[in-house]
Amino acid sequence: MKRIRKVFLLLIITISVFLMFGCGKDKNQETHEKKPYTSLKVIAINDVHGTMEANDDTFAMPGLSWYVKEQEKDETQAVLVLSAGDMFQGTALSNYSYGRNMIEVMNDVGFDAMVLGNHEFDWDIETVLAYFDGNPANGEANFPLLSCNVMEKTTGELMAGLIPYQLYDYEQFQVGVIGYMGLGIESDIAASKVSAYEFVDPVPLIQKYAKELHQKGADFVIAMGHDAFDGTNNRIAALAGDEAVDYIINSHTHATYTRTLTNGNGEIIPVTQAGTACRYATTTHFTFNNSLNKFAEYDQMKNIDLGGLDIYEDETLKAKIAAMAKEIEPIMSEVLAVASRNVSRSSVAIWTADAILDAIPCDIAVINSGGIRNSAFPIRENSNVDVKKVYEIMPFDNLVKTATFTGAEIINILKISDAVYSSNIVQSGNSFAFSNGEAIDAEQTYVLACVDYLFDREAIIYDEGDNIEIVQCLVRDIMINALRELGKTGEKWLA
User: Fold this and answer.
1) pLDDT tens digits, residue range 444-492?
2) DSSP secondary structure string, 108-126?
3) Which DSSP helix (H) or strand (E) runs through 443?
4) Could you report the per-residue pLDDT of 51-60, keeping only the tens digit for each?
5) What is the C-alpha separation between 475 and 219, in angstroms, rounded?
6) What values do phi and psi take at 187, rounded to 5?
7) Rg (CA), the chain
8) 105-115: b or e for each residue (b if 16 or more CB lie within 10 Å)?
9) Could you say which of 24, 86, 204, 359 would form a disulfide bridge with 117 (CB–CB 3.0 to 4.6 Å)?
10) Which three-class secondary structure state does DSSP give residue 315?
């Protein structure tokens, strides 16, 4: 009897293991609710940069959520909701939670997939990958993170945590989505954050996976990239036969467009991008021809204005986002100073370099102009500047590095195209000097304080500097402290 019980127990365990693993679904395949769909509507956004709350321009995520739900009411069309990357970095509400608030909101909207963008590396890539690791304790996305060409240098394999594509089964038809990162976009990421990875040419991999998806039964293939390079778009469009792509989704440049190309099979395919900051969403519609067992060319392609008169808000999601904002309001609502005039991006860039010069022992301070985000402006005369606004101005968690350079090396650094230097330096033609009239001596050494992104990017900085040190203070915190001290004096900002 004991032997029979052991055999029976072993049989139960074997069946359980088989059911758990042997019959598990392909991680690259997702089965949707079976309905008599006759068409596909793709809703795509990109470069949202943490924008969850409605503002003067857009209803943002509550508006998008309302629109998605409206489209889902039409039970003849399958709705696929996609993001082409750069979702998290850019607002206080997202940055303060390292993107976890945004993940929760994306889950509520009903996203089906997201592509890895360059700004997903800003907090170290492990921070974002944790939302896709299957552990709900640290926050978890209900959708996959896609990219087919972000490779680990040591192994040559795809970055752990990514999958190259996802196949969606709607019974009547199947849709494949391939993700990719643009070539050369490493240069838009702090070198220390991306040094372990290489972005290889995506087109041969898109070609490979498009064929694999068609072999798995895909009737429609989307290539969604954190990229907008025309050369790459043209090469993807040129793919033919069972390697062809039916739709290309772009991002990264914050442009807003709907275009077309002809693919290698002679079919007209859409190429779209939806701006930035949840201002627009691209909606593209395709009808499935049952008799031919294939999709017809698109019959609708447009960028909808998420702040338009025909857009409303998902009130439930709006309330959830408001509750998230209320949790951090005591910190973010602290008024630091008052603007003395209409403040421009360029003036804040110089002021930021000056704040670094004042906070850190150095002779010259330099930042990159792109670190000051255009979306935070204009800042109006007499408006309060609070902590939340500083997060919008400088959303990146950049540190400062210091090093010593000769005057000749300093002059070369000051000539970097996107370098913004402290106001104690003046330029006349190709010549630079201190504002007090003192020349920069080519042989003398000077201490430079430089934002780490620029420091690590430029060989003339990281190769030439001596006595390199990292200052363990965020540039944003230097800005906040400088504004707070200014506010205490009663003096207005940039008077």
Assistant:
1) 999 999 999 999 999 999 899 999 999 999 999 999 999 999 999 999 9
2) HHT--EEE--GGGGTT-HH
3) none
4) 999 999 999 9
5) 49
6) -65, -15
7) 26
8) bbebbbbbbbb
9) 86
10) helix
Helical ranges in 275-421 per DSSP H? 315-332, 345-359, 387-393, 407-414
d(CA 285, CA 248): 14
The dihedrals phi and psi of 471, each to the nearest 5 degrees, come to: -90, 120
The answer to whether the beta carbons of residues 248 and 223 sit under 8 Å apart is yes
Task: Using the CB atoms, write b or e for 395-432: b if 16+ within 10 Å.
Answer: bbbbbbbbbbbbbebbbebbebeebbbbebbeeeeeeb
Report the amino acid identity of residue 218. A
For residues 98 and 129, give the distance between their C-alpha atoms in angstroms, rounded to a whole number: 12
User: What token pair was written down for 262?
Assistant: 């002809």
Q: Please give the pLDDT value at position 30.
A: 72
Q: Are strands 220-226 and 174-181 parallel, antiparallel or unpaired?
A: parallel
Tokens of 159: 């970055």
Residue 404 makes CB contacts below 8 A (sequence gap 6+) with 445, 446, 447, 448, 465, 466, 467
Other Cβ atoms less than 10 A from the Cβ of 463: the count is 8
Peptide bond into 204 cis (omega under 30): no
H/E stretch holding 419 reads strand 419-421
Rounded Cα–Cα distance for residues 123 and 144 (Å): 19
- Whole-angstrom distance, CA of residue 370 vs CA of residue 417: 11
Low-confidence ranges of the chain (pLDDT < 50): 1-25
Q: How far apart are the first and last CA of the chain?
A: 92
- Three-state DSSP at 261 gives strand
pLDDT score, position 116: 98
Is 63 strand, coil or helix?
A: helix
For 210, the enclosing helix (H) or strand (E) is helix 202-215
State the Cα–Cα distance between residues 223 and 245, nearest whole angstrom. Answer: 7
Q: How far apart are CA 129 and CA 150, in angstroms?
A: 13
Q: Return contacts of 19-26, CB within 8 angstroms, 24+ apart.
A: 26/167
Spatial distance between the Cα atoms of 341 and 495, rounded to a whole number of angstroms: 7
Residue 26: predicted pLDDT = 62
Q: Which of 170, 47, 62, 43 is nearest to 108 (CA)?
A: 62
Residue 150, token pair as written in the block = 């972000």
SS3 447: strand
Question: How many H helices and E strands in the chain?
Answer: 15, 25
DSSP element (H, E) containing 487? helix 475-489
pLDDT for 36 = 80
Pairwise CA distance, residues 465 & 447, whole Å: 9
Instruction: List the structure tokens of 180.
Output: 């990719």
